[in-house]
Amino acid sequence: MTTIEKQPSVASVALKYGLLFGLVGVVYQVIIMVTDLGDNRWLSSLAYIILIAGIVLAMKNYKEQNFGYMSYGQGLGIGTLLAAVFGFMTGLFTWVYTAFIDTEYMARMMEKQRVQMLEQGLSDEQVDAGMAMAENFQGPLTMVIGGTVITLIFGFIFSLVISAIMKNSRPEFE
Predict the structure, then answer these.
(1) Rounded CA gap, 21 and 152, in Å?
(2) Which of 135, 143, 166 is nearest to 71 (CA)?
(3) Rounded Cα–Cα distance for residues 140 and 97 (Å)
(4) Category of 67 on φ-ψ map: left (φ > 0), alpha (ψ -120 to 50) or beta
(5) Mind spelling out the 3-state secondary structure of 25-63?
(6) What angle do CA 158, 87, 147 make, to 5 degrees?
(7) Tens digit of each residue's pLDDT (9 = 90 or more) over 53-111
(8) What is the DSSP string of 127-139?
(9) Strand, coil or helix: what is 90?
(10) What pTM does this model have?
(11) For residue 161, what are the contacts with CB-CB under 8 A and spacing of at least 6?
(12) Interior CA angle at 89 toward 84 and 95, to 5°?
């Protein structure tokens, strides 16, 4: 008598870890925004470390549930879906925070950017053009969808690499 192996769902693992690490990302973002360090690119980019950790742990969990196996495509699916959830949650939080909690946050960040541009020697016209362009990306739809899409792209790229490293395909003839 053979036992039937039930394969875990890629979507369920990705959603579980996407929500979990999305919350971690939101908490990290709260810290960054409350301390007014949102203009620090180095600190802001650490959110991608949280995303990478989420992808690695989700793939590891999937493999544990699947008797040590995970195909390249399954890993890519897990990482990409997880990144979409992560990006949506952090984008939604950014919009809620800047629209309802700290309505002056974006104005402070814009002023910091203006000062940085002037310190770099840009002319007033160049600075004004840069500020006008930046204002176009402050709407709620842009924050949520933009955050989701950008994180999805990075998550897909990370998943390409992480899946290649972590994959362990089932033998063809078992």
Answers:
(1) 14
(2) 166
(3) 11
(4) left
(5) HHHHHHHHHHCCCCCCHHHHHCHHHHHHHHHHHHHHHHH
(6) 105
(7) 999 999 999 999 999 999 999 999 999 999 999 999 999 999 999 999 999 998 898 88
(8) HHHHHHHHHTT-S
(9) helix
(10) 0.89
(11) none
(12) 125
At residue 171, the 3 state secondary structure works out as coil
**Residue 168 structure tokens:** 């362990």
Over the stretch 103-138, which tens digit does the pLDDT of each residue have? 999 889 888 888 888 899 988 898 888 888 888 777
Polymer length in residues for the chain = 174
Cβ atoms of 25 and 50 within 8 Å: the answer is: yes
Q: Are 39 and 109 in contact (CB under 8 A)?
A: yes
Spatial distance between the Cα atoms of 108 and 86, rounded to a whole number of angstroms: 25
Rg (CA), the chain: 20
The pair of three-digit structure tokens given for residue 77, joined into one six-digit string: 């699916």
- DSSP-derived secondary structure letter, 168: B
